[in-house]
Amino acid sequence: MDTLTRMRTFVEVVEAGGFSAAARKMGRSKALISKYVRELEDELGARLLNRTTRTLSLTEVGQVYARDATEILQRIDDLQTSVGDAHAAARGRLKVSAPRTFGDGELGRAIMDFVVQEPGITLELHLEDRFVDLVDEGFDVAIRITSLTDSSLIARRLASFRIIICASPEVLERHGRPEVPSDLAGKPCIIDTNVGYRSNWPFVIDGERVTVGVKGRVEVNSPNAARLGALAGLGFTIVPFLVVREDIANGRLIPVLESFEPAGVAIHAVYPHRRHLSGKVRAFIDSLVHWFEKYSPPGGSC
What we know:
By secondary structure, the protein is of the alpha/beta class. Helices cover 40% and strands 25% of the residues.
């Protein structure tokens, strides 16, 4: 019996919560399941499970082994799935979560391009700003704009995500162009309450992240509304570059303090760590990667 089979049996016992449940799931006898786990412990020279007549628990070593073994098995399964799905057509229902503002714009176009290209896909797109629980809520994939620190998810980076400060030419003429972030403290600003920093705008100065408190008589809860306020000459605002890209190209809005912009945030496609990457999800993510490579400006930043 090979180590991989013993490892997989052990993980099944842990996930099922016992030998009997694992045996039923795997279609094998409880005695055989117990034998495989015992052989694994003998091979490792360490006890992985504490067994009593009524309870089963992981030892400290068992906890570490279960975590790492699960990851190894997932990678093996994903590799086998990727080979099998390499030439298969994407099909089935695809449930996707994405941030509302982004989904209404650039990302929405990328997603709809994918659906056009894949007639076997039925799309269920949820646009909302909260971070959904992919497993509990049954999502296949989520698009997130973040630095992404959740190790329970697998992520594919799609593009950098640029946050800029901008204002109309009229505002710059009336109030002057800020040279350093602290200059904004005395200038009218449009505040988006839908972002975490609200009126404490983030910057990077000499490699360190700092915030500057700003004020203004306009507060909104959408970057699109912040854009409209900036176009109306109501002050400086902080918005995703993708929201104002055309306005900047046409000179309606002017970026400022570009050398102080925060970095490290990116657009990611994420999916549950322990879920097999199906053909439809793989095709969807690959499509987004290619879309951003094609349509993003130089540097891959949105």
